[in-house]
Amino acid sequence: MLPVEWIGPAIIAAVIAALINVAGWFVTGQREVRRDRRRRRERCEDLQIALRAEIQHYMDILSNPGFDLRDIWAEVVGQMETDENYAPFVPSECNDTVFKTVLTDISILPEQVIGPVVRYYNQVFAIEAMIEDLRSYKFDGMDQEQRIKMYTDYISLKLEALDQGNQAIETLNASIGAPNGAAVSTPDAVRSGQF
Which of 177, 178, 130, 132 is nearest to 154 (CA)? Predict the structure, then answer.
């Protein structure tokens, strides 16, 4: 049997210090994990709120009662049918600034959110491509029947974007716990306690 005399106060103090040190590492590690999860949740929610704001802005424009897409289509196509030389002016659009900025972080969004958001933005990209075609010199060189078909496709893309955008907003609202139709929070609303 080995003598127990070598276990003195210095050894016991070292063992206790080592155990406390290991416990400290464990507690610190758990704190770091919880902090990282909280930051990830906050970043995820911030991204969803920003995307919802951008999508909602375009949905407000597309669903404006004073600018009904079907009425505009009928008016423009009517003009095109009566005047062979008439070509509508289609302004360029930029409705994807936030999405392009956060695209590298899209993987932190919940899976059920990614699908509707990506489908909506693919529709926005299709509209931007169609606008480029409608503004090109090739469009001016087409016969009027072909121009009418292209303009009709353009309006159809916008109507589909309206549906896709509303689905994306509904999914984003469900994910962040906001009721459908909820206003996007603003710094002023948060400070005043309105949101």
Answer: 130
Residue scoring higher pLDDT (190 or 151): 151
Read off the pTM: 0.76
Element (H, E) at 124: helix 111-134
pLDDT digits (tens, 9 = 90+) for 16-32: 888 888 888 888 888 88
Task: Kindly report the average pLDDT of the chain as a whole number.
Answer: 86
How far apart CA 55 and CA 63 sit, in angstroms, is 12
Query: pLDDT per residue over 133-189, tens digit each?
Result: 999 988 888 999 999 999 999 999 999 999 999 999 999 999 998 776 555 444 444
Q: Within a 10 A sphere around the Cβ of 154, how many other Cβ atoms? A: 21
CA dihedral 106, 111, 116, 118 (to 10 degrees): 30
Q: CA–CA separation, 8 vs 119, rounded Å?
A: 70
Nearest-angstrom CA–CA distance, 175 and 124: 22
